[in-house]
Amino acid sequence: MRKTGEYRVMQWKIWLTAAIWLLVMLTFVARMYFLQIVDGEELKRLALRQTERNRVIEPRRGEIRDRAERTLATNRKVPSLAAHPAEMKPEQKSLALKVVKKAFGDPDGVMQKRILSARPFAWLRHRLTEQEVDQFKAALLEINGGKDIFGLRLMDEDRRYYPYKELASSILGYADFDMKGRIGIEREYNEQLKGKAQTVKVRRDARGDAAVSSPDFRLQIPSGNDVVLTIDKGYQYVTEKAINQAAVEHEPAWAVAIAMNPKTGEILSMAQYPGFDPNR
What we know:
By secondary structure, the chain is an alpha+beta fold. Helices cover 44% and strands 23% of the residues.
């Protein structure tokens, strides 16, 4: 009888343990059901709100070419300084402030306001020169031992580049640091060259690195239109050489020379003295 009683107690313990485990599993399954099915969409929206941001992608400015499709104006990648304030801790912002003030100064306090803000992304300084990049690296070395500061980074941006320097500068004009045409063809066809900006969604991982959400992003990168001129680079070189030689002999305050196709009226070259280097 005693053994029978102990056996029944043991059975009850086993059944009770099994029931408890079953209850725990059912609770877990129910919770997972509510998280995945009932509350899934709301939780997904919350997660995306915290990790997904809109980023404006500036289009690549179109090229200017001569009649033989030789490039007279194009773009070059140069580093710019940017920050991700919303992802940075107070101590990281403090270090970033020390570095940028050491490297560039901040008399108007614009960079400080941007770093201390809660913005997901902020440009601090556009299109740095080689000297400015060296200043930044020297400040980073002095203040943080040369180690990167989370949320502070150099990123490539386009800068207008004229491969033949002064050649056809009076025709081409130039685009400023904001890639806006100021004079010449750059200004006259600014809207066609600059293209339209595009807004894309980017997601941040645990390290704060951004990745474009759309897998087809490479196909969506905006670009301005190219402009092809009637100018011929060879004729332009000869015309400019001639007008510069004449300027040396006669010392005029200003001079211009034009070569035109008499049959079609196309302008093959147009030189002006004095000229300038639009890269400066």
